[in-house]
Amino acid sequence: MDDTNMMDASQPLFEGCTFTIIPTTLTQDRVIEISDNIEQCGGKVKPFDIDVGRIQGLEELDYIVSATTDFPDYYGALDVMIHVVKPAWVEDSMKINKIKNPRTYSPDPALFLSDVVVCCGDGIPEGDKEAIFGGVLAMGGQYGAQLTKLTTHLIALSMEDPRCEMAVKKRLNIKIVLPHWFNDSLKVGWRVKERPYLLPDPEIMNVEAGAIPPTTTTPGIKDATNPEPAGPPASPTSAYRAQPRAIKAFDGQKVMLGEDLNLNKDLEDVLTGMIKAGGGTVTNSVQQADIYVCNYRKGDDYVKASQSNKDVGNLSWLYFMIIHDKWTNPMRRMMHYPRPPPPGIGNFQDYKISISSYTGEARVYLENLIRALGAEFTRTFKQDNTHLITAHRNSEKCEAAEEWGVNIVNHLWLEDSYAECKEKSLTSERYTYFPPRMNMGDILGATEINRDAVRKTYFAKGKKKESEAMSNTTVGVGRSHTDGGAHTPLVEKAARRTKTAGDVATPARSRVEGKENETPGTTGSRGAKDRALSSLHDVMEDVNKYQKESKRKGGVIHGGRRRKEDEIADKETRRGGRESITSKRSIEEVEADDASTEDETEETAQKSKKARKGPITSIKHRMLVSGDKRWQGDGDKESKDKARLRELGLYILDEPKRVDFLCAPKVVRTLKFVAALADGPQLVGSEYLDYAIKHNKLPDAKKYPLDYSDFRKQHDIDLSDAVTRAKQNKHRLLKDFTIFCTQKAKFDVYKDIVAANGGKCLKWDNRTTAVTASKRKIETQPKEVSQNLEEDEGDVLYLISEPHKDEIKLWIKFRELAKKHDMVPRIVSNEWLLGVAMAQKIHWRPEWELKEEDVKTTAKK
Question: Where is the composition biased (Basic and acidic residues) (predicted)?
Answer without folding.
Answer: 563-588, 627-639
